[in-house]
């Protein structure tokens, strides 16, 4: 029980539902982009897909995560071929 108090004392909190939905959404889009890039032998969509699957875990702010996700989706559209 002391460990829980210690964790709560360090401002550890659960992420918001919008953050979890964004993580799931951009992870699925990234996985689909990775599969597309791998199947079509296109390196740019494949690497953008990998970044889309990983970056939400390094982004602490929900708005920043959605902004980066929108930018990566735009890049994926531009570099689709």
Q: Summarize the main sheet.
A: none
Fraction of helical residues: over 70%
The number of E-state strands comes to 0
Secondary-structure class: mainly alpha
| Unreliable runs | none
- How do the helices and strands follow one another from N- to C-terminus? HHHH
Termini separation: 55 Å
Q: Radius of gyration from the CA trace?
A: 16 Å
Mean of the pLDDT scores? 89
Give the amount of beta strand, in percent.
under 5%
The dominant shape is elongated
- In DSSP terms (H or I, runs of 4 or more residues), the helix count works out at 4
Write up what this structure looks like:
With 81 residues, the protein is mainly alpha-helical. Helices cover 74% and strands 0% of the residues. The protein has four helices and no strands. The longest helix has 23 residues, at 17-39. The relative contact order is 0.15. The mean pLDDT is 89.
Summarize it:
With 81 residues, the chain is mainly α. The chain is built from 4 helices and no strands.
Descriptive terms for the model:
4 helices; elongated; mainly alpha; 81 residues
Would you spell out the secondary-structure blueprint of this structure?
Blueprint: H1 2-9, H2 17-39, H3 43-54, H4 62-78
